[in-house]
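Side project, low priority. Logging it here so it doesn't get lost.
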Amino acid sequence: MERVDYRTFEASLERSARLEKDLQSNPERFRVLTGDRPTGKLHVGHLFGSIENRVRLQNLGVPIFIVIADYQVLTDRDYAGDIAENVRQLVIDYIAAGLDPDGEKTFIFPHSHVPELNQLLVPFLTLVTNAELNRNPTVKEEIQASSQKNINAGMYVYPCLLYTSPSPRDRTRSRMPSSA
């Protein structure tokens, strides 16, 4: 097994170059699990920050699994807006940017459309303590950024739910109904 040096920026660049070379010749060795929260329309920062790279990886032949984190929107705001419309618009934006859910390499699904993810939540919650959730830097940042007067339990629980996301080895395709 290769020993990775993470101590310097140069070492990180070298590692990235090796990964990119391997990616070009062996895309089937890689899988990507990523996602977005449907909080509104995407902007040019989304395109250049992540979506453009997702399209590039898809076109190389890397399987891309994109979770639309619709449940997460409920955790950090008092009013979530029209989530269903935002999910629909997000998928439209993905397709317009070049992501192809019909091409056998890109899988797009809203979290709420996969009940098995929620069924795993309780067992996962038994593996983490309240103290661990309170120390989670992402939770702390999200709480601060939310400016909510009352923080709901979902803010703490959602990180556990992220670990229930499907394994990239799972080839089952989840399709969003057209009424969503």
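Brief comment: The CA atoms of residues 115 and 121 lie 10 Å apart.
Revisit when time allows.
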